[in-house]
Amino acid sequence: MSENYDFIEELEDFLGGTFHQDISSPKQALDDFINEASKECLLFTVKYCEEFSNSDLTNQEKGNIIQSNAEIYFPAIELTPLQWINKLVEVIKEAVKIK
């Protein structure tokens, strides 16, 4: 994977491709992604998600990007989009340890 990438574009592709309208649940979609992805892919996913979280975008802008690309009803999971993406990164990091 090249160092020449746009972390927002990568994030949007990941969210749209993983958390789309046909998933049974966000947890199941994440589990499926982790099971199917290589360790390198998981590490890259963590990298661009963390770059996104640490970027200069406002929390509102970050939340809007997440909501626009993930088909998740955040009140139902009782997390804000930013809390959810941070939790998602932690779950992926744990998965990398055992992959």
What does this structure look like?
This protein is mainly α. 72% of the residues lie in helices and 0% in strands. α3 runs antiparallel to α6. The two termini are 19 Å apart.
List the helices and strands and how they pair.
Elements: H1 7-18, H2 26-36, H3 39-53, H4 59-69, H5 74-77, H6 81-98
Q: Please state the average pLDDT score.
A: 94
Helical run tally: 6
What's the number of structural domains?
1
**DSSP, total strands:** 0
Distance between the termini: 19 Å
Unreliable stretches (pLDDT < 50, length at least 5) are none
Q: Kindly estimate the percentage of residues that lie in beta strands according to DSSP.
A: under 5%
Helix-strand sequence: HHHHHH
The assigned structural class equals mainly alpha
Overall, the morphology is globular
Question: Which descriptors would you attach to this protein?
Answer:
single chain; 99 residues; mainly alpha; 6 helices; 72% helix; globular
Quick summary of this structure?
It is globular and about 35 Å long.
